[in-house]
Every structure is written in structure tokens, then in C-alpha cells.
Design brief:
alpha/beta, Rossmann fold, five-stranded parallel sheet, globular
Length: 125
């Protein structure tokens, strides 16, 4: 399968092991390039404008995210990025979609589900 272009992905999770595992998984696919990693909201807000990601894979429990309107600041800062929420709490799915997430992945989902979701979002970029 020929890849026409590569989607730029920014990983945002406070757990380095999670970011490393996601990077390894994502970079095995020719359709994605991990352009950066953020371990905090502050890093995310600093990195994203210079990296211009098309997809932000965001840990819903990332320290520093406000309890309400979590995604609004990201949408204001990166209006063209698709935001895929990643959470260890599957019950957060409904709230994440209500606040504007493009997609949701549970940390309990298998790697294939992560890739399938990224490909789905990639097709909409």
C-alpha cells in the first residue's frame, strides 16, 4: 500500500512508558510520524504550535487539564488538529466526546484498536 502523505502526531501523556510504547506502535506504521511528546499541559501548549500536529493523542488525565472544558484551550490553540483522547477510565468516553474529542481510546484497548482509530482520524485529516 502506497502512502500518499504522513499524518503528524503529537503524544501527550505524563507517563514516559506510555509515550514510549505509543511511539513504537505508531512509528511502525508508515502513515504516521510522531513529531513530539509532551508530559504536561505546559509542554503540550508550547510544543504544538511549532510542531503543527494534525493529530494530538491526549491523555485525558494529563495533569494540568482543567476539570471543565478540557479541550477548549487545545481547540483554540490548534483549531485544525484532530484530538484523540486516551484514558485509563473508559467511563470518561462520554465526557470526552461531549467536550469535543474527535475520537476516544481506552488504555485497555489492544494496540490494533489504537492504530485503527488513528487510521480513521488520518482519513479525515
Amino acid at each position: 500500500m502506497a502512502v500518499e502523505w504522513v499524518a503528524r502526531v503529537l503524544l501527550a501523556d505524563d507517563q514516559e512508558k506510555v509515550r514510549s510504547a505509543l511511539r513504537l506502535l505508531i512509528e511502525q506504521e508508515g502513515s504516521f510520524q510522531v513529531v513530539g511528546e509532551a508530559g504536561s499541559v505546559q509542554e503540550l501548549m508550547q510544543l504544538a504550535p511549532e510542531l503543527n500536529p494534525q493529530i494530538v493523542l491526549l491523555d485525558w488525565e494529563l495533569p494540568g487539564l482543567p476539570e471543565t472544558r478540557r479541550l477548549q484551550a487545545l481547540r483554540d490553540r490548534f483549531p485544525y488538529a484532530h484530538i484523540v483522547v486516551l484514558s485509563g477510565q473508559p467511563e470518561a468516553r462520554q465526557t470526552a466526546f461531549a467536550e469535543g474529542a474527535d475520537e476516544f481510546i481506552s488504555k485497555a484497548d489492544p494496540p490494533e484498536k489504537v492504530l485503527k482509530t488513528l487510521y480513521f482520524v488520518h482519513s479525515r485529516v
